[in-house]
Amino acid sequence: MAPSHRATLDTAVETIRSRAHWSPHPEHPRAYQDDGSAAFRALCDTTFDLGQPGTDDWVGGETSPYGFPLGVRYPHADPDVLLPAMRAALPAWRSAGPERRALVCLDILARINARTPEFAQAVMHTTGQAYPMALQAGGPHAQDRGLEAVAYAFAEQTRTPERASWTKPQGKRDPLALVKEFVPVPRGIALVIGCNTFPTWNGFPGLFASLATGNPVLVKPHPRAVLPLALAVRVARETLAEAGFDPNLVALAAERDGEGIARTLALRDEVRIIDYTGSTAFGDWLEANARQAQVFTEKAGVNTVVIDSTDDYRGMLANLAFSLSLYSGQMCTTPQNVLIPRGGIATDAGPKSYDEVVADLAAAVSGLLADDARAAGLLGALVGPQVLDRMAGAERAGRVALASRAVRHPEHPDATVRTPLIVAVDAADPDAEQAFMAECFGPVSFAVAVDSTDAAVALLRRTVRERGALTVLGHTTSERVARELTDACLDECAQLSLNLTGGVYVNQTAAFSDFHGSGGNPAANAALVDGAFITPRFRTVEIRRPA
Amino acid sequence: MAPSHRATLDTAVETIRSRAHWSPHPEHPRAYQDDGSAAFRALCDTTFDLGQPGTDDWVGGETSPYGFPLGVRYPHADPDVLLPAMRAALPAWRSAGPERRALVCLDILARINARTPEFAQAVMHTTGQAYPMALQAGGPHAQDRGLEAVAYAFAEQTRTPERASWTKPQGKRDPLALVKEFVPVPRGIALVIGCNTFPTWNGFPGLFASLATGNPVLVKPHPRAVLPLALAVRVARETLAEAGFDPNLVALAAERDGEGIARTLALRDEVRIIDYTGSTAFGDWLEANARQAQVFTEKAGVNTVVIDSTDDYRGMLANLAFSLSLYSGQMCTTPQNVLIPRGGIATDAGPKSYDEVVADLAAAVSGLLADDARAAGLLGALVGPQVLDRMAGAERAGRVALASRAVRHPEHPDATVRTPLIVAVDAADPDAEQAFMAECFGPVSFAVAVDSTDAAVALLRRTVRERGALTVLGHTTSERVARELTDACLDECAQLSLNLTGGVYVNQTAAFSDFHGSGGNPAANAALVDGAFITPRFRTVEIRRPA
Q: CB-side exposure of A149: number of CA atoms within 13 Å?
């Protein structure tokens, strides 16, 4: 194990306190040896054996959104064999203590980082992300979030010392004196239920938070995005075994499409922690039914932009156009509803009417995506056919201000690539409201005409309270409006970005500095990563005896 | 506000890291001006007006276990008026920030501390605790636990800075630069559901944890133990108002006996945090039904002692006799099942058979309580008639090894005072098992004959897993057995004390150093006080904008 892991851990712990920019994981493709395609091709059409106990069958059926089957077959587990084997691995991992666990986790992350291009290919061909984004978001940024979870886990577990002496004076009598040991103990097996669009980025925080706090982790990937997490499980098992621990501390639960094993696993008594990213319906089901477990969910939300005014109209439009286009809006953080006062807004380029703002935003998106090759590199491919269905439904909600365009991918002609659709609607139209007040995941946004900025803030509040939001973006030159947006986000517990006009986008957060979600509105009951994401994963047992 | 509150806060934060002995609250009665009886008498037979909005009636009906009605009438609240008033107080309290909130909480605690004798009388005459214990446990020790919660809340809220600068290099281009604000935001109204036996000790941690993290707190006391918490609410409201905050940040919800308003309040949408101490049935109901809230519960458990061997037989018996007698065993931490190998144990006084150990323990209890005045001062009064019913039931479970004796209280002849009952049972007897595997709250313990120390450890494991435990005590001279007891407590997540033979008792924990409960077995889903008791009470909202 590299001796520098301890230094990395210390810097991570320091950075979650300073919230400055930092990452040990380079994000530029040039930092990595190759583009991972050879390693990826070598994985396709193979049996991905992990040596797990209780493997009763082999399953697989992933198809790349770029138009070919992956052909990888994964172990299908008998939980009655696999879960007891995982449980048996717990005591030695618990005994290792917080520091050793953190360092092993850092070693897993370092090995994953060394294979970033291979992970990037796996992410690309399961999610549809373009390669540069799959490399960054699926590689270093996901690794950062995993490391951040380890740093929080280490900090929370070591706030109580391993040993303490306690001496209480008793006047003239001898003092009372005890020695005390404090041991962080894990809760049990942790289940990570992965999502289709960001398997590593959304999966790593829960995986590493649970593992670093001593819990064995069973990873149940989305049946259409298994490979990235299967690779992570393989690396984790190898690292654990080399470090002298039972590899069954991390295992994979692949399933047949439609088998629905998450529902079964989530109710197993051995499962005491669940991390889930996905639909609101199943997230709500987990919260209501997996009562034996601590359940951390990220569900659907309706992200809102309030446009009041700007002193950089072009910058605002360019920034927003990029946010709407990146990965075809298939991010849980992509803005959906852009609220614009009916009477228009003040800008550095003069007053702009509602219609002008909508038209200029449409033009900014069109301009950004005019070149097919560049567009494909930004948009990636649609993750599945259900996205097209949602787009067709959204078109009927109002006036199409920017039609979606099919883009031919230069290298992958079978990929379904679409530019964003912008639908102009009026907040007062109840039919339109039905559409824009529900999450429409994919390259769809609504330019919502509202009576005023005050009405926009009121609608923002209602949207967050009723539907949840992972991101809120405001554009204003008025400190009063900035204050009102801030108050709304404090009251409704949503993360706010103001006046982004440059190279920082509302849909991106930086580990160690930004919180992803708040855990305080219906979009998610957890934030990545804060103390509340960590502390319920372990308990502290004290052993005291006379000194 | 005393300038030293900040120093006290700093020492508290430091002590929860060192786990050393410390308290700013003197525990000796001589530290306080009088015995509080004049203040207490002045409260009796009065209307306890708190100036709360929505007071629609006056209710009361407390009777002292020492034999007289208190005659205090408390405000009965209309939640449709009171809860919105409390909610309206939230934004200004949120804006105050973690440090100011902590210092106001410390001021509340300091004012409560100054009135410790009055609280002691109120605790004594609602719980039945003897005055010296009511003073210590209901006064300084409860205040310590409240302060500990404030210290944890302050530490958790300030681990993220108020502001941060974030600058990310972009090669030859200008760096990306953001300024970020981080604001801890409360979840909503917190409901504290008090218990009959330790209204302040069990009530203060949740009250102060929620208040210090920005949440308004509604205190719903047990209908037979209102006065101690009503006094705390009054002090809190006065302190808040003097500090320029809305007194409705803390309010009382008294009820008619049998009204059951906890059930109604717990399901109100405004209520987002619940702290509860009481029966397993209602705790389980809260966890299952109050889904809009974070629910912290302390419920019933079966505390176990394993006697393997000792090198201080007399010390062990004396220590255990005290533990069984203190407040007539009406503590959630009192040992219930004393597991003793059928073949006897090794001691410094030679080998002792099971029967000898039981007889010697009975004699130790009898000796300790031989003098009625001393006995009354240790036992206090039974909190209610249901305790007598349970004692009668327990007698039928086995052979009575020590009969309970009625003690005449020298000053309060109407008080029901009883010495502990010890029932000898065999672990192999299924009828006895039904009795000893359920919590029998009160002065009842079972001396359980088991096959061996190994069998005792196995029964300990099963008891904690199935019924929960707040405390486990082991006596052994063998490091192997100590290791097995430790492993059992780590596996089942219970707090372990070993070989207590002096002035530290298993039923007592010290704030800032000992954890009360673990939160990881069926006796409680929360520990007092750890990070997990604090972090779910607030979220962090980030506001970021270009630098």
A: 30
**SS3 at position B296:** strand
Burial class (CB in 10 A: 0-12, 13-18, 19+), A258: exposed
C-beta of residue B209 within 8 angstroms of C-beta of residue B149: yes
Q: Report the residue of B157, B166, B481 to disrupt the A interface, i.e. the one with the largest count of A CBs within 10 Å.
A: B166
Query: Peptide bond before B541: cis, by omega within 30 degrees of 0?
Result: no
Torsion angle, CA of A123/A129/A134/A136, rounded to 10 degrees?
A: -150
Return d(Cα B4, Cα B436) in angstroms, integer. Answer: 49
For residues B46-67, one letter each, b for 16 or more C-beta atoms within 10 angstroms of the residue's C-beta and e for the rest, the string is eebebebbbbeeebbbbebbbe
Q: Any chain B CB within 8 A of the CB of A483?
A: no
Q: Per the structure block, which two tokens stand in for B464?
A: 């904690």
Give the nearest partner residue to B513 out of A17, A180, A499, using CB atoms. A180
Please state whether the peptide bond connecting residue B365 to the residue before it is cis, i.e. omega within 30 degrees of 0. Answer: no
- What are the structural domains of chain B? 5-299+527-546 (3.40.605.10), 304-498 (3.40.309.10)
Q: Which residues have C-beta within 8 Å of that of residue B245, sequence separation ≥ 6?
A: B89, B92, B93, B96, B104
State residue A472 phi and psi, 5-degree precision: -135, 135
Residues 162-201 of B with CB under 8 A from A: 164-170, 176, 178, 180, 182-183, 185, 187
DSSP-assigned letters across all residues of A451-469? S-HHHHHHHHHHHHHHH--
* pLDDT tens series, chain B, 547 aa: 455 999 999 999 999 999 999 999 999 999 998 999 999 999 999 999 999 999 999 999 999 999 999 999 999 999 999 999 999 999 999 999 999 999 999 999 999 999 999 999 999 999 999 999 999 999 999 999 999 999 999 999 999 999 999 999 999 999 999 999 999 999 999 999 999 999 999 999 999 999 999 999 999 999 999 999 999 999 999 999 999 999 999 999 999 878 999 999 999 999 999 999 999 999 999 999 999 999 999 999 999 999 999 999 999 999 999 999 999 999 999 999 999 999 999 999 999 999 999 999 999 999 999 999 999 999 999 999 999 999 999 999 999 999 999 999 999 999 999 999 999 999 999 999 999 999 999 999 999 999 999 999 999 999 999 999 999 999 999 999 999 999 999 999 999 999 999 999 999 999 999 999 999 999 999 999 999 999 999 999 999 999 9
Q: How far is A218 from chain B, CA to nearest CA, in Å?
A: 19
Helix, coil or strand: residue A72: coil
Question: Across the strands, what pairs with A425?
Answer: A448
Polymer length in residues for chain A: 547
In angstroms, what separates the C-alpha of A364 from chain B's closest C-alpha?
21
Strand positions, DSSP E, A320-441: 337-341, 346-347, 399-402, 406-407, 417-418, 421-426
Which among B486, B494, B499 is the nearest to A546, CB-wise?
Answer: B499
Compute the distance between CA of residue B232 and CA of residue A92 in angstroms, rounded to an integer.
Answer: 46
Measured from the Cβ of residue A74, the count of other Cβ atoms closer than 10 Å reads 28
> A21 vs B168: CB contact, 8 Å cut-off?
yes
What is the distance between the alpha carbons of residues A131 and A316, in angstroms, rounded to a whole number? 26
Q: Does B513 touch chain A (CB under 8 A)?
A: yes
Residue type present at position B179? V
- Secondary structure of A226-262 in HEC code, one letter for each residue: CHHHHHHHHHHHHHHHHCCCCHHHEEECECCCCCCHH
Q: Name the residue in chain B with its Cα closest to that of A516.
A: B542
Q: What backbone torsions phi and psi does residue A21 show, to the nearest 5 degrees?
A: -75, 135
CA distance A113 to A107: 10
Ramachandran sector of residue A194 (left: φ over 0; alpha: ψ -120 to 50; beta: rest): beta
